[in-house]
């Protein structure tokens, strides 16, 4: 990342770049984290002409981007998905943190592992967040199915998580202060499965199946990305784009360097990722041996 002091004039823009290798997985307190955040803190402004004059309020000198988008698939049995929200106490004293969840849709249900946490200075804890659709719910299931089929759920559910810290002395100010936030976009889609991924001569083929009211049927559209890599060089993947036809099947030609390696007996693996549509949720085959 670029380092050093940068001067920002009114209306000016500065670009910062960094090399970031996203880890394959990350856990906080043994809870899998499915998203990452980027936070920028701005130092207190000091007047260069008079060091005695500086910014008084610095609590709003930060910005954070913490956003994730996911599809909540429905089928039988229903699934609940979970992620983790990491909360760190950066204060020099112990403090109580509340986590508040809110959403703008009635088609999903949210869960929080902890409504509040008492954290010591420098301590980090994870709050587990779960979410599921109301498909097949005894009370709201019929409404969910009707709205889904009639296209009333094309606008995704916007979820927000807010962390608040309690003041140390509530006799003077009892209002909690916002210290953290995260956003999550939830989309609904019928459950899918990428099956029968295999090499067929100079191509890779497979099929995407969906589940409608417990009955398997082929999906009828949607993009499929096939990732192929040498078994000894997983950091050098090759992406091949394809699409599911009306029977759910997809086919993609293998590039020349992959075919050449296969011809020499080298081992290659592949993974197919179905990207989903409005009606169908994304899914993936998982790594499969192609040669």
Instruction: Using the 3D structure, state the CATH architecture of the largest domain.
Output: Sandwich
Beta content: over 45%
What is the SS-derived class?
mainly beta
Number of domains: 2
The tally of beta strands, per DSSP, is: 20
| Rounded average pLDDT | 85
Low-confidence stretches: none
Helicity, in percent?
under 10%
> In DSSP terms, counting alpha (H) and pi (I) runs of 4 or more, how many helices?
2
Outline, from the CA principal axes? Answer: globular
Q: Kindly report how far apart the N and C termini lie.
A: 40 Å
Rg value: 24 Å
Major β-sheet, in short? 6 strands, mixed
Strand-and-helix sequence, N→C? EEEEEEEEEHEEEEEEEEHEEE
Quick take:
The chain is mainly beta.
Task: Give an account of the 3D structure.
This protein has two domains: 27-35 and 62-188, Immunoglobulin-like (Sandwich), CATH 2.60.40.2310; 191-289, Immunoglobulin-like (Sandwich). 6% of the residues lie in helices and 48% in strands. By secondary structure, it is mainly beta. The strands form five sheets. The protein has a six-stranded mixed β-sheet, with no helix packed on it. Strands 15, 16, 18, 19 and 20 form a five-stranded antiparallel β-sheet that branches. The chain is globular, with a radius of gyration of 24 Å.
